[in-house]
Structures are given as C-alpha cells and as structure tokens.
Amino acid sequence: MHLKQDRRNRSSIGRRFLAALLHPFMSDPPAQLPQLRFNSPDGNIAIPVTEWCFLMADHWDGGRENLYAKCSLRRIKFCKCSNGARHEFLILYFGHWMDGSSAEAVVCVDRTFKLCTRDDNSSKQFPGLVSPSSSEPSPALDSVSMVGSPHDAESRLIQNHGPYKRLCTLQFSPSSAPSALEVSTVLFLVHQQAPVYDLIDSQCFWFSDSVWRSLKVLFPINEEFCNLNDHNSRACYVGFTVGPSDLSVQAVCDAYESEWQRVLEKVGQVKQYHEAELARAEQRGLVIGVEQGLAQGRAERQPEIDQLRVERQHDADQMQQMQVELAQFCVLMGVAASEGTRD
To answer: First vs last Cα of the chain: how many Å apart?
Structure first.
C-alpha cells in the first residue's frame, strides 16, 4: 500500500516538474484578440463578415506576424434549429496557435437579412427561411457572433437560436488547418457571391453550405463526421433541398488565391506603416533624449561654468586695472621728462 502511494507521489511530482519545465514554451490564451474573444465576451458580439475580415487584416500588436494568422480552425459543426424555419448556422472552433494549446474560441456564422421599414427607417433582423415582405431585395446580413469559450458557448447559442441539432462535424488536420485570417477571407468571398438575400437561391441554407464546402475544398486535409440522415437534412426544408450551389463553391475557390494575396498585402502594409511610425517615434525620442541629455549635462556642469565665468571676469578686471595704471605711469613719466628738458 505504501509502495503504491509512494509511486503515485513520485509520479505526481514528476508531472508537476515537467509542467513547470514546459510552461514557458507553451502558449497562453491571447489577451488582446478582439475578433475572436477567447474569454467570455460581455453580451452578444456580432460583426458582419466583411468587417471581420478587414479588422483581422488591420490588426497590429507590435509583433512580427499577424496573430490571427496563428489561430487555427480546429473544427466546424453544421447546426440546424429544431423549431420554426429550421435556421442553419455553423459553429467554428479556433485554437490559439497550432501546437495543441487548450485555449479555444467559439464563433457562430450564419446568414439573416434586415428588413428596413419606411416609416421610421428602423430595421428588423430575420433568421432562417423567411420571405421578405417588401418587393425590393433585402441585403443579406452575413455575420460572425463571438460566443467565448466552449464552456460559455452552449448557453449563448441556445439563447440566440433556440434548441438546435448538430448535424455534421468537419475536423481539420493541425498541420494544414486554415487560420482565422484565411477563414475570414473565405467568408468574405462567399458573401460576395450573393450579397442579397433570396428566398430560393441564397438564404441561410445556401450560405452555411457554401462556407462548409468551400473550406472543405480549399483545405482538403480534413475529415467529416456525420450519419447519412443528418447529412441529407442539411440545406433541406420540409423535404426539399434548397440552397446548395456547386457554382458558388467553385467561384469562391477560384477567387480565393488572388483575394488571399490581397489580404497578405494589406497585412504587410499595416506592418510597414506601424513599423515606420515606431521608427519615427524612436527617432523623435532619440532627438529628445539627446536634447534632454545635453540640458541635463549643462545643468550638472553649470556651477563649474559659472565659476569659470567669474574667474574670467576677474582676470579681465585685473587686466583693465593694469592698463589704467600703465597709462597713468606713462603720463607721469612724460611730465617728468618735460620738466627736465626746461631745466
């Protein structure tokens, strides 16, 4: 009994020692990644996918690399609401770094639309398969909702969408998973394919399916888990298939490489701008530092300078006095010589 207990104690000590040894090399959850929110956010934070992509590319924390390029997409869950119009949405799980860190941020992605009223210019948001009452086309609202860690996400998702079912899971390989920055680029391109909400061709079913399939094609080292019935219920409403579009997925994949290069150029420009600003600030600081150093040096040597000035003034006064005395002596000598000549 004592031998087993001793082994357990040694094993526990060894694990703690190993954890302490490895801790400096492990990644802690990032404190300042406002477009993912690894920690539980205050309230429901939703951002249009077009802004999400721009905000990520524009991020700067003083490092050498955009931090969103280091946060990998670990898996996606395809979800369908149990009530109403059977709204469909995706749940994305982002990990901090790609080295197996336990920190995860959960993001919900879906399509709704806003119907603006002419009376007060207000707007109402509608999820799911809904027919706009206005004859005019309604802009699609493709948004990203940050719901915190996996522990906090479930209650927030139910609060936002009601009861729902997870239909499928798409798991990515850690070695080739897309980064948050790459995922934001794909979401932006899917939105560009159909920026207007359409009841038949481009509603929530179309959007979720297009994002899912585009990521699956662009980052092919992945594995999909779902049974046949759940798979067939995707993009399906009361037995009818709505939304999936091979052409849209192909268009996204075709446009991805050029769009991704544009994003990288933007990231590079942001880095160059901030580095130039930092260099200018350092230069200004150097100039100010030199001026302050000179001023401090002068202040420290001021007593010596004052003493030297006093001594120089004293020498000047003595020289002037000697000149006066010499002039007087010359006058006296001239007078004496004149009297001697008369005699």
So the answer is: 141
Q: What is the pLDDT of residues 70-100, one digit of tens each?
A: 889 999 999 999 887 889 999 999 987 534 4
274: which 2 tokens? 């901030």
CA atoms of 209 and 206, how far apart (whole Å): 5
pLDDT at 191 > cutoff 80: yes
Among 207, 185, 171, smallest CA distance to 56 is for 185
The two tokens of residue 125 are: 């948001």
Structure tokens at 172: 């990515």
Tokens of 238: 């009361």
Residue 246 to residues 210, 252, 311, Cα–Cα distance (Å): 8, 10, 95
Among residues 111, 62, 59, which one has the least CA distance to residue 85? 111
* Residue 13 token pair: 């000590």
Residue 6 and residue 73 in contact, taking contact as beta carbons nearer than 8 Å: no
DSSP 24: G
Q: What is the pTM of this model?
A: 0.70
